[in-house]
């Protein structure tokens, strides 16, 4: 049975734009998604299949019973939960202040990404929460070493981070 799906000219533009970037789920309406692949073939599938979230169990044994997922994938996106500067082997914040905690938080993010066959270069967005905005400069010195491609970022200060951490970072990566 043949099915006819109508897309606007804007949708077709998005198909070619995102398709040229190698994206798979790029153009959709409320019923279907057009996908491209490396072979430049097109396929149409239900939108719910393209973006249904998958909640991933933690790769850290001590976090298996946490009330949240370390990562959730939806389409080509991987959303990571916030990471603080905790050494997962000891379950304690690393000593050394904002620089050490930032480095450990980013290493934790890197570890989760690697577990999902991704890397820091795949990060497109970061959200950073500092317990003290005066730590902004020291934080940036470490952060910039991990993200030379400069993903989009939001940074703000808030008190009362988990375990009295000085920084928490969450990211969104693209597969």
UniProtKB/TrEMBL annotation:
One of its GO terms (molecular function) is deaminase activity. Pfam families: Ribonuc_L-PSP. One of its GO terms (cellular component) is cytosol. Gene3D superfamilies: RutC-like. SUPFAM superfamilies: YjgF-like. Belongs to the RutC family. PANTHER family: 2-IMINOBUTANOATE/2-IMINOPROPANOATE DEAMINASE RIDA, 2-IMINOBUTANOATE_2-IMINOPROPANOATE DEAMINASE. This is Reactive intermediate/imine deaminase. It comes from Cochleicola gelatinilyticus. The lineage of its organism: Bacteria, Pseudomonadati, Bacteroidota, Flavobacteriia, Flavobacteriales.
């Amino acid at each position: 049975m043949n099915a006819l799906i109508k897309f606007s000219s804007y949708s077709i533009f998005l198909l070619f734009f995102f398709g040229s970037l190698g994206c798979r789920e790029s153009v959709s309406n409320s019923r279907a998604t057009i996908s491209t692949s490396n072979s430049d073939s097109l396929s149409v599938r239900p939108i719910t299949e393209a973006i249904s979230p998958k909640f991933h169990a933690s790769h850290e044994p001590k976090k298996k019973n946490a009330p949240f997922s370390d990562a959730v994938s939806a389409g080509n996106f991987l959303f990571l939960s916030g990471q603080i500067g905790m050494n997962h082997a000891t379950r304690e914040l690393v000593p050394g202040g904002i620089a050490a905690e930032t480095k450990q938080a980013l290493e934790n993010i890197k570890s989760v990404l690697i577990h999902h066959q991704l890397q820091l270069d795949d990060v497109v967005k970061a959200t950073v929460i500092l317990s003290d905005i005066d730590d902004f400069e020291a934080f940036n010195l470490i952060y910039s070493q991990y993200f030379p491609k400069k993903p989009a970022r939001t940074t703000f200060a808030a008190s009362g981070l988990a375990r009295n951490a000085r920084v928490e970072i969450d990211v969104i990566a693209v597969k």
